[in-house]
Amino acid sequence: MSSFAEQMETLAARSKSAERQALTEEATKTAVVLPFIQSLGFDVFNLDEVMPEFVADVGTKKGEKVDFAIKIDGKIAMLVEAKPINSKLGETQFSQLFRYFHVTEARLAILTNGKEAWFFSDIDEPNKMDSKPFFKFDFQNHDRAQVQEIARFQKECFAIDSIVEAASNLKYTRAAANYLSQQMNEPDDDFVRLVGRQIHEGPITKSVSEQLKPAIQAALNEIIRNQIQDKLSITLGSSNTAPTPKPTPTHEAPQAEIETTEEEIEGFMIVRAIAAKLTPVSRITIRDAKSYCAILMDDNNRRPICRLYFNSATTKNIGLFDESKTETRVRVDGPGDIYSHADAIEAVVQSYLKT
Questions:
Q1: How far is residue 296's CA from residue 275's CA, in Å, rounded to a whole number?
Q2: Pairing relation of β-strands 75-82 and 108-112?
Q3: Angle at which helices 342-353 and 262-275 pack, to 10 degrees?
Q4: Distance CA 12, CA 157 (A)
Q5: Which InterPro entries has this protein been placed in (predicted)?
Q6: Are 4 and 39 in contact (CB under 8 A)?
Q7: Counting C-beta atoms within 10 Å of the first and last residue's C-beta, which end of the chain has fewer, N or C?
């Protein structure tokens, strides 16, 4: 039996194939949705586990049906509503699922088009589906952490209370992360006043706020830089713990140690900030080398985003990549100039998200 992660990779290939061939909702169900439900450990051929076209009468509307009701021990655990793979998920689709949700005992609902799956619960108000999903899963582009989240929904380990608790934590953690990310890029007045009251004696006037704003922004960036530097130190340190054979003496000069500079870390943070609108920043990684510092997608050297050539004392360059992974070096004065090449960085990140 293949691992769950391997099943998700197989599902990713199915989704890409279906995107080219599936033209209807039924084709999407067959190609992606049913295999997805099966991968969670539910028998799609057993009506005691997966009930297709489940009738969910809503008020005066009779005969309303949801595509699949997934049962555990005879009780409805999840509702699944499918849409054609080339349709865009949005409010129109989940408003339909919203109606079904409150007339069943399910506390989880999934809306999917075979490319994405949106997960809903009743975190804000019992028995009323939240208006926003607590988790979105991209079948074609996902990381290990997202696969681990999906694994919670497997039949063998399904525990509704822990899932809803995790959903609540995930929802608020991501909301907090988005808010703090916005404050890092451009602190708003309320945030400046909040921090200002802790570090400034006296009223926070407009002039005081203008003085504090860049200091707060710099402090947030410094915290992130320090955390990254600590992680890099741990990584580099652990890679040097294994014993190595004593080298044969030679007349060659010893190799210089790789040192990730402050400018490289700053450049990495800027690339992360640019890519944040497209993908979770955890997918943007740094890998330093002697001649350049590589910024990669998913820590995969076959997915380069850019390279920072900051080691020279006189010139600095950034290597930009296009969709064919052809590198073009551009002269820059410092990390701040990376913002001028945001379009190129966004384009290459977008190209990796499509493959």
A1: 11
A2: parallel
A3: 60
A4: 23
A5: HSDR_N (IPR029464), UCP035009_HsdR_All3000-type (IPR017035)
A6: yes
A7: N
Nearest to 34 by CA among 48, 52, 16, 19: 52
Q: Which domain holds residue 207?
A: 194-236
**Residue 132: half-sphere exposure toward Cβ, Cα within 13 Å:** 9
CATH number of the CATH domain containing 313: 3.90.930
> What is the rounded distance in angstroms from the CA atom of residue 38 to the CA atom of residue 222?
46
Are 135 and 164 spatial neighbours (Cβ–Cβ below 8 Å)? no
How far apart CA 71 and CA 48 sit, in angstroms, is: 7
Q: How far is Cα 220 from Cα 273, in angstroms, rounded to an integer? A: 13
Place of tokens 């525990």: 159
Together in a domain, 228 and 326:
no
> Each residue of 88-147: pLDDT tens digit?
887 666 667 787 787 778 889 999 999 999 999 888 888 788 888 888 899 998 888 788
pTM comes to 0.56
Per-residue burial over 184-211, b if 16 or more Cβ lie within 10 Å, else e, is: beebeeebbbebbeeeeeeebeeeebee
Interatomic CA distance for residues 277 and 346, integer angstroms: 9
Cα dihedral 78, 128, 182, 199 sign: negative
Q: What is the number of structural domains in the chain?
A: 3
Q: Which two structure tokens, joined as six digits, stand for 103? A: 């007339």
